[in-house]
Each structure stands twice: as structure tokens, then as C-alpha cells.
Amino acid sequence: xxxxxxxxxxxxxxxxxxxxxxxxxxxxxxxxxxxxxxxxxxxxxxxxxxxxxxxxxxxxxxxxxxxxxxxxxxxxxxxxxxxxxxxx
Amino acid sequence: xxxxxxxxxxxxxxxxxxxxxxxxxxxxxxxxxxxxxxxxxxxxxxxxxxxxxxxxxxxxxxxxxxxxxxxxxxxxxxxxxxxxxxxxxxxxxxxxxxxxxxxxxxxxxxxxxxxxxxxxxxxxxxxxxx
Amino acid sequence: xxxxxxxxxxxxxxxxxxxxxxxxxxxxxxxxxxxxxxxxxxxxxxxxxxxxxxxxxxxxxxxxxxxxxxxxxxxxxxxxxxxxxxxxxxxxxxxxxxxxxxxxxxxxxxxxxxxxxxxxxxxxxxxxxxxxxxxxxxxxxxxxxxxxxxxxxxxxxxxxxxxxxxxxxxxxxxxxxxxxxxxxxxxxxxxxxxxxxxxx
Lengths: 88, 130, 200
What we know:
The structure holds three protein chains of three kinds.
Chain A: H1 2-25, H2 29-54, H3 60-87
Helix pairs in contact in A: 1-2, 2-3
Chain B: H1 2-29, H2 33-58, H3 64-91, E1 100-103, H4 104-111
Chain C: H1 6-16, H2 18-32, H3 37-53, H4 67-94, E1 101-107, H5 113-125, E2 129-135, E3 140-145, H6 151-171, H7 191-199
Antiparallel strand pairs in C: 1-3, 2-3
Helix pairs in contact in C: 2-3, 4-6, 5-6
């Protein structure tokens, strides 16, 4: 099972790297918001896998907070983008 | 019982991770913001859902519901944020119109005499603003 | 039938809040991860307080939700999720930059805020379709669909979304034509009172 956890974490980490690339490159603010949102999602997934692998449940409540914050954050940021573009 | 749960995790973890990776790949490869939304939504819903359910199968009873709660929450909120980002992308010309095979929303906006966003200041039409 | 004391009216309105209170209570206990007396009582107080302080408008107009249909909806959603997830993934790997997409106008037949929101959300949830704009008054969704190659694909996407809509309407007990008139005198222009009478 340890190999399985390691492999899963490695794949999620690779996905996170690709997302980071989009975060850096993303031509629009919206792309960056989206990439950040996905990055948080991957953090949640990786934390869950890590909690299982280390048999340590301390981080579980943090996942709830992360999920909430990511949602509120990206919605707010998207609204700001719309407002800013609308002022132009 | 443990064997079954282990098997569930052994299937769901790689599948979820694979969807995360494919979503990230799509995020990198798709040509415009709106198309990338599709890839992002996939990593966010499918990938995370599978991983969380797989993790819940391994957790002691007390924590499994919390993980499922996170999954449920994500399933509910991810569409909302991607819908808002998609709407903003359309209104602020975040999508490449040349890549669209057909744009029936633009057809309607033209019929209604509303200037297309991106060519002019994006204008809110009240009936769409609910 | 026609004159109802306001006391029982308020009671039935309070009764409608019960599922919300129970859900909030459950959430509280779940997040605390313990079932001591303090958590249970405190949670109940917080749940009631939240419902009283932030009342939500009643969203379910008439129609009785059908658990079986809703379960079917869930199963369909999950298969849709996996199936179209694979399609989009394949698209990302194989075609990448040259992915053809289109914005499709989907006329809906349901006429309720809740159901339209549900259809829009389910559509966005499945990969390959994102709702870009909702026209509430004309009952239209504008959907950005991903692998779309020709006119036939556009028509297929449109009917896909409409199929989801039918499923949602059925799950909420809103099937068109299946609406049976209530036992009381039914006047077509007074549907609001009619649905209220059916509930209590």
C-alpha cells in the first residue's frame, strides 16, 4: 500500500507542477484564478492521501477550511476582474 | 472487510490522481480560458472526488464523514465558481472567438442590439443578471 | 379549507425549516467529531439560531420530490461525470490546442428558479459543458461545449442538456402533464394557494 500512496502523491504533485506552470504563464487574471483554485484542490487531495499514508488525522478539519476558502476566494476574485474590466 | 476497502482505495487513488493529472494537462494545453475551465472542472470534481472517497475508505469511522463532506462540498461549489469564471470570461473577452465553431449567445446579443463584449464596454443585460 | 388560522400556518412554516435545522445540527456534530452533551445542545441552539436569523425563502414550489428518481439522477450524473471526463481528457491529450468548441443555446421548458439553477449546475458539473450565461426570462441556457465538430454535435449537445432537464424535473416531481389537480376546488389562476394547501 505504501507504494500506492507514494505513486498517488507523485502523480498529484506532477499535476500540481503543471498547474503552477499555467499559474505563471496564464495570460489573463482569470487563468490565474482558475489555476490557483485547481492548485488548492490538489492540495486537498494530496493532504487526504498523506493523512491516509501516515495514519494521522490531524489535518482532516483543515481540508474543510481549504475547500471553503478556495470557493469564496475564486468567486470574489472573478467578481473583481469583472468589475475592473467593466470600468475600462 | 479490510481487503475490500483496500481494493476500493487501490482503485480510486490512482484513478483520482490520473484525473488530476489529465485536468492539469488540459489546463496547460487548451487554447483559451473558457476551454481551460472544462479541464479545471474535471480535476476539481472527478479527481478530488475519487481521491477523497478512496481516503474515506481507509479512515477510522469518525473522520470518514468529514472527508465525504469535503467531497460533497466541492461537488456543490466547483460548478458555481466555474460558472462565474466562464461568465466573466465571456463578458471580458477571455475567450477566443475565432476558435468557436458557433456562438449562439453572440447571435442573440446581435439580435437584441447589444454590443458584443470585447468590442465595446461589456454591458449587463438585466434579464441575464439573476 | 379556505380560512386557516394563522397559528397553524406559522406552525407548518416552522415545520418546513426542520430539515435545514437537522442538517445544520448534523454538520456541527460532524465537524466537532464528538457527541458530548455540550456539543449536541450547543449545536441545536446554533442551528435554530442560524435558521431564525437568516431565513431563506422557500424554494420548493409544489411538486413532491421523488427519492427514487433523485437516486436515478445521481447515478446518471456519476456515469455522465466519468464518461465525459474521459472524453475531455482524451481531447486534452490528443488534440490540445486545436480543440473545437461552440456556445450552444438551450431552450428549457421548466419555469422555476430552483429547477433552472439545478439544471445549470448539473450541466456545469459534467466536464465538456460549462454554462456561460443564464437567461431567466426567456428560459435559455448558453452552454460552452467542448469537443464540438459540426452542426450535428451542436444539436446533440442541446438535446443532452434537455435530457438532464427532464430528469431533474422528474426528480422534483415536476413532470409536465402529470400534475394532478388537488382535492379542493382548483382554479387555474390561483396556483399559489393551491400548492400551499397541498403541503399542509
